[in-house]
Amino acid sequence: MNNILQLPALKTPCYYYDLDLLRETLRVATHEADKHAFRLHYAVKANANPRLLALIRSRGLGADCVSGNEVAAAIDSGFPAADIVYAGVGKSDDEIRRALEADIFCFNCESFPEMEVINGIAASLGLRARVALRVNPNVDAHTHRYITTGVEENKFGFYLHDLEAAIRRCRELPALEWLGLHFHVGSQITDMEVFCELCARVSDLQRHLAMHGLVPAHVNFGGGLGVDYDDPDEHSIPNFAAYLRVFADHFEARPGQQLHLEPGRSLVAQCGSLVSRVLYVKEGRDKKFIILDAGMSDLIRPALYQAHHAIENLTPSSAARDLYDVVGPICESSDCFAKAVDLPVTRRGDLIVLRSAGAYGEVMASRYNLRDLPPARFSDEGKASLA
Ligand SMILES: *Cc1c(COP(=O)(O)O)cnc(C)c1O
């Protein structure tokens, strides 16, 4: 963390990535996945920074993409097309064509009309699309409602009662090859019971399908493993061993079946911080505000879904403490990172970091208010790169 203070020509706001922590996180995740022969596909939407993508690829992970440009970014960063899966409820014709031409491993298909369109485009190109059907398993992830994806009221995937018909249609369409099933029930899931329930639900489903002679070769359980936003130093690497063991112990895999997972947040959240400088400390009537040079355009998670990030002052000049609302400069009341944060007495010019910002941070930055996009800085700057 304190390497930040050694970065040459530090301009704020910026994202800072601890590459040693990312390497160690990847080492643990791949080591645990290898024990069970699970395939990991990194969910590119969590962070598409090219250096991070290249490092993740170098550790042998595949890529899980949700747009044509993510597929292109994954290929540009060295992910072989054969290790790329592509999900999303609204794939455009052009995105489908590009992914077919790139010959990606698998489309995670989410609806009947999408299946027909992929078939049509593949046929017109003289190609065959490998397809897994995304199923909405109706498992409640017990997470924020904006990041819950696996219950029937939301837009993702096939409903269970349509699945058999969907598989049959997929196998009928001449330019499609049915590979298996895909699930993803939500994000920032910290209760392993949710994944146990998913395993039980999918095991039941498989039993039902097997009675009709349908056995998926591939089962993809998506992502969703949460991280500790409250104490990023205590839990800098999520418990991949416990998470992956759930699937090994609770899912009744069929012989020869390949299992896949798509971790995003759990791989990259803790290695990233948003670094900012204090512009002003403003005394309100009954509270004090720290006004940062970073705002919701740099990190939108607190404004978008009341997300919590640990906040630290890296350059306090006193041991005394006070309570502050930490806000950004943008003309929106929701541009507030946290309220009543206990911090050392803070002054103009102090460096403030928002921790655990490596996932859904930089990649969601916008130019709202015509602000500049925050650049990325890396822990190995100035040292020889050992990637
Ligand atoms: C977002 C997403 C993921 C990754 O989710 P995390 O919570 O970041 O692990 C995986 N698969 C799909 C289909 C997704 O949409």
List keywords for this structure.
single chain, 387 residues, TIM Barrel, Lyase, Ornithine Decarboxylase, Chain A, domain 1, 10 helices, elongated, binds pyridoxal-5'-phosphate
Ordered list of secondary-structure elements with their pairings:
Blueprint: E1 14-17, H1 19-36, E2 39-43, H2 50-58, E3 62-65, H3 68-76, E4 84-86, H4 93-102, E5 106-109, H5 112-125, E6 129-136, E7 158-159, H6 163-172, E8 176-182, H7 192-211, E9 218-220, H8 240-250, E10 258-261, H9 265-268, E11 272-283, E12 288-292, H10 301-305, E13 311-313, E14 321-327, E15 336-344, E16 351-354, E17 376-378
Parallel strand pairs: 1-17, 2-3, 2-10, 3-4, 4-5, 5-6, 6-7, 6-8, 8-9, 9-10, 12-14
Antiparallel strand pairs: 1-11, 11-12, 11-16, 13-16, 14-15
Helix pairs in contact: 1-8, 3-4, 4-5, 7-8
What does this structure look like?
α3 runs parallel beside α4, α4 crosses α5 and α7 runs parallel beside α8. A hairpin with a 4-residue loop joins β11 and β12. With 387 residues, the chain is of the alpha/beta class. The model has no long low-confidence stretch (mean pLDDT 95). The protein is 28% helix and 22% strand. The two termini are 19 Å apart. It folds into two domains: 249 residues, Alpha-Beta Barrel (TIM Barrel); 107 residues, Lyase, Ornithine Decarboxylase, Chain A, domain 1. The strands form two sheets. Strands 1, 11, 12, 13, 14, 15, 16 and 17 form an eight-stranded mixed sheet that branches. It binds pyridoxal-5'-phosphate. The site of pyridoxal-5'-phosphate has 18 residues, from α9.
